[in-house]
Design goal:
The complex is a heterotrimer of chains A (about 280), B (about 425) and C (about 290). With about 280 residues, chain A is an all-alpha fold. Helices cover about 70% and strands about 0% of the residues of chain A. In chain A, helix 1 crosses helix 12, helix 4 runs parallel beside helix 7 and helix 8 crosses helix 9. The two termini of chain A are about 15 Å apart. Chain C has two domains: about 80 residues, no CATH class; about 160 residues, MetI-like (MetI-like fold, Orthogonal Bundle), CATH 1.10.3720.10. The chains are: A mainly alpha (about 280), B alpha/beta (about 425), C mainly alpha (about 290).
């Protein structure tokens, strides 16, 4: 959008936007800063902002207490695994909904979304019993499946809205050339939909990474991801803001960094068909 | 269906058994408090001695409770040892969910466990969980502020004295609150405190026919006294203060008195964390002249879920973690004040330990709490700050939420009590008591 | 355009997702329904027989039921209003030319990456704590008495926390929509001398309606299930018990699976009412 704006206007915009941006980001920034303080400085009154003795001891203590890498590995495997599996299941479904819509397509879509509204805790016991029976308790495979199912509706919907924007004529042309359905999806459709698929993947990694009910309740030691890691630092005896901050920073840093690096891809496809 | 489950369980068990024949690994669910974290640091010594590897699942108290309860009631088998309290142990023991600990080695000396603790962790005379540490509650107070107020703390004060002393010590301009107490919702937080306090006012949870008693005068007296005193002399926002918040207030020198868990004594006297470490005195929890004091009894204990394939290794671990020699190891490395207290008689016969300023008062407090006979009038349940029935946790959480709302001034004490009465009776009816 | 061939192929391709979701929905649903007619108390030996509709009537007549519905709706509606209004404003702001737009966008979307447990912990301890919290320091700096966030302003606190988490999502979708707005149309209206407010009301807002619908739909799904934020902060005290939190209390704290399951069925009904309500607006807007 080319609109001519005076330098002064631009400066004002910049100032306001930066102020608002920093305000929104501030809780995270404050947590990161606090993680480098001693416990005493963390609750100092008045609070210290930047001028304190920076220390890494909180990270050392947290790492000594709990093996961060193991939780991190589990989080990565569970988040990525469930997303990849979800995409594989969702692409054909979204394809057929977008290009061969039936009378019930929209109902099916809405129904899929409504499955997300069931309160998880209501089915904790049934699912727990099922997991015991299937031997999936405290296994990464079990969590991959559950998180895939939880996020599948969102994945299908995002892909559907994205596929729908691909002009049908291109597919027609491919069909004229004698491409099979499989080839049509693999060679024609998918490349065109890559940005949409990419942002779907990113969004779902975030959602899976942050899911805290099933990942906590269906794991013990082996498959526990970062959500369980953080549960051992909330409300200990006494207030340990610095250690809590260090643990929090460790829990959110990987996904935050991933999100920042890929924000362009994420933003590009994160429209849910809201843009026409 | 059950046969299939059994077959599958058997198959899983076989696989597990085959898998661990070489190096056994046990999984332990535990709570994230200081003593437990310290124990994790010494686990290497256990592994070196026995060759058994240990995997820890450390969780915040509420999460731990929901996690282990789900697992044990579904026989999930995710853990080989669970850290549970005095509330869960007798209930689970009665259900046959825990491995009896009646065959511990002679060297372990189970008879050395404090009788009050062993009693609370047993069902029908059988020990089902070994106490890692035990606690009662007592008064921790600032000797300097007490002196400044011109008062002398008796060894066993009354509530009237506490209220007067609190008012005298309060100095709002200097941010000093006469008394800090738990008001936070949750049966293990403010619920535990008010229940223990209500015992000394002659209140109880249930009458002999399991009816709620919140419509009776002792409860009204308890809450009126508590709220009155806290509004006069307590910290702002006490309705959300639990153990942590009060500990931090006391350590920062903002409380004249604090009535809470005896284990807190070692935190408030530790100069590393506490600004008032040199000025802390101890007294028994207050009474009201009715013959019952307002102190509770609790233990964090280790138990083995029935059905684990690693029972032997789990027992080995429990014997190690709750042994006399573990206490000695900690004492040698970190000083006597930091050993897990309240579990063993021998600890309180050790002259080194009795030099610790709070040792005697802790023991006296523990000895003065009697779970079998905690209330002034006869009650149908066991437990001091809880009733050892499965429904209690749920009911008491709801009730304490009503109480906290009253502390915060969002409803009157009468309204809170009326709601508590209704919801308790309703839940007891649902559970089939009435 | 669709041939018979592609139609059946479509059905086959949609099948895995539908079957999986059907399973994921039906298995728990059937089990929830089954348990809801049972007296099922894990701590008392599990299944104690059929009780008909007793759990249903007990759940509804409990004094916590209607307040929990009210709390749920308050939370959902407040967060939706806050995130949509602020989201539109923020999107308009971010759309304007400025230096460092990319970095500002990064700052704004960051809260979306923070797991709910962590954000609740951060807000509760480091900001809203009445003694050591940053907001308390701020209040004191202005000579005011710090707010007891978790007791005196419990619902606002939770709404603030949840809105903070979801504002980035709303902003992003709305921003994309604004950026797709036809520049010429806007410029034409500028030439016509339409004042900014009018321009916003008659051109921008209608253009955003679709995006707002999407935001409302997606967020509602997640907001109905808000749990960690309440668990960590108030534990359901001070009038913050939502329906899903009430069910949690029944299932895990009271260990009454039958009663909790009946609550689950009510939650499903509520979700479907909300879904139908949404369908009416969304159905119009989403084509």
């Amino acid at each position: 959008m080319a609109r001519s704006v005076t330098t002064r206007g631009k400066a004002i915009n910049t100032a306001i936007a930066w102020a608002v941006g920093l305000l929104i980001f501030f809780p995270i920034l404050w947590t990161i800063l606090t993680s480098f303080k001693t416990e005493g400085q963390a609750i100092a009154a008045p609070p210290v902002f930047l001028f304190f003795d920076w220390t890494l001891e909180n990270y050392a203590i947290v790492q000594e207490r709990s093996d961060y890498l193991r939780y991190l590995t589990n989080s990565i495997i569970i988040a990525c695994g469930s997303t990849v599996l979800g995409i594989i299941v969702a692409i054909p479904a979204a394809w057929s909904m977008a290009f061969v819509p039936g009378r019930r397509t929209k109902d099916i879509l809405m129904w899929m979304l409504s499955t997300k509204m069931l309160p998880a805790v209501g089915v904790l016991y049934p699912i727990y019993l099922l997991f015991i029976k299937l031997g999936l308790l405290d296994s990464r495979a079990g969590l991959v499946i559950v998180l895939m199912l939880i996020n599948l509706p969102i994945i299908v919907w995002m892909l559907y809205t994205y596929f729908r924007e691909i002009p049908g004529e291109i597919l027609e042309a491919a069909r004229m050339d004698g491409a099979s359905l499989k080839n049509e999806i693999i060679y024609v459709l998918t490349p065109m939909a890559v940005p949409g698929i990419a942002s779907t993947i990113l969004l779902n990694i975030i959602l899976a990474w942050n899911e805290a009910f099933w990942t906590l309740n269906l794991t013990a030691a082996k498959a526990a991801p970062l959500t369980a890691f953080i549960a051992s630092y909330s409300s200990p005896e006494g207030l340990f803001y610095a250690k809590l901050s260090a643990a929090s920073t460790m829990a959110i840093a990987p996904i935050l960094i991933m999100g920042w690096f890929s924000q362009k891809q994420l933003v590009r496809g994160l429209t849910f068909g809201a843009v026409k | 269906m059950t046969n299939t489950v059994r077959a599958l369980l058997g198959a899983t068990a076989l696989c597990t058994f085959a898998g661990v024949a070489s190096a056994e690994t046990i999984t332990i669910a535990t709570v994230n408090n200081g003593d437990m974290i310290r124990m994790q640091g010494y686990t290497d010594q256990f592994t070196a001695q026995t060759g058994v590897e240990v995997e820890w699942v450390t969780l915040e108290e509420n999460v731990l409770r929901q996690r282990v309860t789900t697992d044990i009631s579904t026989k999930g088998g995710a853990f080989d040892i669970m850290t549970i309290g005095m509330y869960e142990t007798p209930i689970w023991g009665a259900n046959g969910w825990l491995v009896p600990l009646n065959d511990l080695s002679a060297e372990y000396d189970a008879a050395d466990i404090l009788p009050a603790m062993a009693g609370g962790l047993s069902y029908d005379g059988t020990l089902y969980a070994a106490p890692f540490y035990g606690e009662s509650s007592m008064i921790m107070y600032r000797t300097d502020l007490m002196e400044k107020a011109g008062l002398d703390m008796p060894d066993a004060p009354t509530w009237t004295f506490i209220r007067e002393a609190a008012a005298a010590m309060t100095d709002r301009d200097n941010d000093i609150n006469g008394v800090c107490l738990r008001g936070k919702a949750g049966w293990g937080e403010g619920g535990a405190f008010i229940t223990a306090m209500s015992n000394s006012f002659g209140a109880q949870w249930f009458d002999m026919s399991w009816g709620a008693t919140f419509d009776q005068k002792p409860w009204l007296d308890t809450l009126t006294f508590f709220k009155g005193m806290m509004d006069e002399s307590g910290p702002a926002g006490y309705a959300t203060n639990g153990f942590n918040e009060n500990l931090s207030l006391f350590q920062q020198g903002k409380c004249g008195m604090w009535i809470d868990a005896t284990v807190a004594a070692s935190f408030v006297t530790n100069p590393k964390d506490s600004t008032v470490a040199d000025h802390v005195g101890f007294a028994l929890a207050p009474d009201n002249g009715l013959g019952k004091r307002s102190n509770w009894l609790w233990a964090w204990a280790l138990a083995i879920p029935a059905g684990t394939q690693k029972e032997a290794a789990a027992k080995q671990f429990i014997e190690w973690a709750t042994s006399k020699s573990y206490i000695e190891t900690v004492a040698a490395n970190e000083g006597w004040a930091n050993v897990p207290p309240g579990a063993r008689t021998s600890l309180y016969e050790n002259p080194n330990y009795m030099e610790v300023p709070f040792a005697q008062k802790t023991l006296d407090s523990i000895l003065s709490a009697d779970p079998l006979n905690a209330t002034v009038n006869e009650a149908p349940y066991v437990g001091v700050q809880f009733a050892a029935i499965p429904e209690f946790a749920g009911i008491a959480t709801d009730v304490s939420q009503e109480f906290s709302a009253a502390y915060a001034g969002q409803q009157t004490i009468e309204e809170a009590l009326a709601k508590a009465q209704a919801l308790t009776n309703d839940a007891m009816e649902a559970a089939g008591y009435r | 355009m669709a041939t018979q061939h592609s139609r059946s192929a479509a059905r086959i391709m949609i099948a895995p997702a539908v079957i999986l979701l059907l399973g994921w929905m039906l298995v728990p649903l059937v089990m929830t329904l089954y348990f809801s007619f049972k007296k099922y108390l894990p701590l008392r030996g599990g299944d104690l027989g059929w009780v008909g509709f007793e759990n249903y009537s007990r759940f509804v007549t409990s004094s916590s039921f209607w307040p929990s519905i009210a709390t749920t709706l308050t939370l959902v509606v407040s967060v939706l209003v806050i995130t949509v209004v602020l989201g539109v404003l923020l999107a308009l702001l971010l759309d304007r030319p400025m230096w460092g737009q990319g970095i500002v966008r990064i700052l704004v979307i960051a809260p979306f990456f923070v797991m709910p447990t962590v954000s609740a912990l951060i807000w509760k301890n480091m900001f809203m704590d009445p003694i050591n919290g940053l907001l308390a320091h701020l209040w004191r700096a202005f000579g005011a008495e710090p707010i007891q966030w978790m007791s005196q302003a419990s619902m606002p606190s939770i709404i603030i926390i949840v809105s903070w988490q979801w504002l980035p999502f709303a902003t992003l979708i709305l921003l994309t929509a604004i950026q797709s707005l036809d520049g010429e149309q806007l410029e034409a209206s500028e030439m016509d001398g339409a004042p900014p407010v009018k321009r916003f009301w008659y051109i921008i807002l209608p253009h955003l309606s679709r995006a707002i619908t999407v935001v409302v739909l997606i967020q509602t799904i997640f907001l109905l299930a808000v749990f960690a934020e309440i668990f960590v902060t108030t534990g359901g005290a001070f009038g913050t018990k939502t329906l899903s939190y009430l069910i949690f209390q029944r299932v895990l704290e009271s260990q009454n699976v039958g009663l909790g399951s009946a609550g689950g069925v009510y939650a499903i009904i509520l979700a479907n009412i909300v879904a139908m309500f949404l369908m009416r607006i969304v159905g119009k807007n989403l084509d």
